């Protein structure tokens, strides 16, 4: 290990925002055309404002294979998929889910059997 | 919901490979220069060969903030971080961890307290 390596972060949540771009005439559309970059930027901004950027990481992702439902966002470790996310949805997504642990039902993609109907996950642990 | 929407996949594992590119003279280096794209391609190829691409998804990721340790790979839902990953590591990573659930210690990034020393996760459930 190099001495210059920074300490490894342990994110409590890791949020991937699709910013994949397809040609303008592609029938699937793409998350970039639907505002993926702006959604990611707003997410990073809202995490920063709340001082939780080291606890919750926002990341670019390539195609998440849900193009028709974009902008696609997936939250780990719980693997909750959100679709049709806009910049205006971000404050609620951050406060309710990323901080509070509660799924934002109105943005939830359908057909997520792995959640087994679960709507509440651990709230963010923030050291005071 | 549009009738044309495909059924939502529930991946058992979701693997993010950093393919972020920085200028050639950037002191941090970058995963793309270290072979991130080739690592992702090999990963997709090996998953396809084993017929498990619908159970384990390989994804591009933007910067995972571990540039010095690249190529960086993170496996969810367990949030296991691997560093210095090369194309030649991929068959072992797939067979041992992504299928078998066992952490590949030799590729593990240091300082992952969230793992609490855990080295075994559920094996992939493949319907016969």
Radius of gyration of chain A: 15 Å
The helix/strand order of chain A is: EHEEEH
Average pLDDT for all residues of chain A? 89
Q: Can you tell me the overall shape of chain A?
A: globular
Helical amount among residues of chain A, as a percent range? 10-25%
Oligomer: homodimer
The main pleated sheet of chain A reads as: 4 strands, mixed
- Count all strands of chain A and give the number: 4
Distance between the termini of chain A: 32 Å
Which spans of chain A have pLDDT < 50 for at least 5 consecutive residues? 1-5
Which chain pair has the greatest contact? A-B, 36 and 36 residues
Structural classification of chain A: alpha+beta
Going across the biggest sheet of chain A, name each strand in turn.
2-1-3-4
Q: Number of helical segments of chain A?
A: 2
Give the percentage of residues in beta strands of chain A: 5-15%
Characterise the protein shown here.
- 2 copies of one chain form a homodimer.
- With 128 residues, chain A is of the alpha+beta class.
- Chain A has 2 helices and 4 strands.
- The first copy, chain A, has helices at residues 36-49, 90-99, and strands at residues 13-18, 56-61, 73-76, 80-82.
- In chain A, strand 1 (13-18), helix 1 and strand 2 (56-61) form a beta-alpha-beta unit.
- In chain A, 39% of the residues are buried.
- Chain A binds chain B through residues 1-2, 4-11, 14, 16, 19, 57, 59-66, 68-69, 74, 76-79, 81, 109-114, and chain B through 1-2, 4-11, 14, 16, 19, 57, 59-66, 68-69, 74, 76-79, 81, 109-114.
């Amino acid at each position: 290990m190099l001495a210059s390596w920074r300490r490894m972060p342990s994110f409590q949540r890791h949020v991937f925002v699709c910013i994949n771009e397809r040609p303008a005439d592609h029938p699937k559309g793409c998350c970039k055309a639907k505002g993926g970059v702006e959604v990611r930027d707003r997410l990073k901004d809202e995490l920063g404002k709340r001082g939780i950027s080291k606890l919750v990481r926002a990341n670019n992702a390539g195609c998440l294979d849900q193009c028709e439902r974009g902008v696609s966002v997936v939250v780990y470790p719980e693997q909750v998929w959100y679709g049709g996310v806009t910049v205006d949805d971000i404050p609620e997504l951050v406060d309710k889910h990323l901080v509070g642990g509660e799924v934002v039902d109105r943005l939830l993609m359908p057909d997520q059997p792995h959640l087994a109907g679960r709507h509440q996950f651990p709230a963010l642990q923030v050291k005071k």
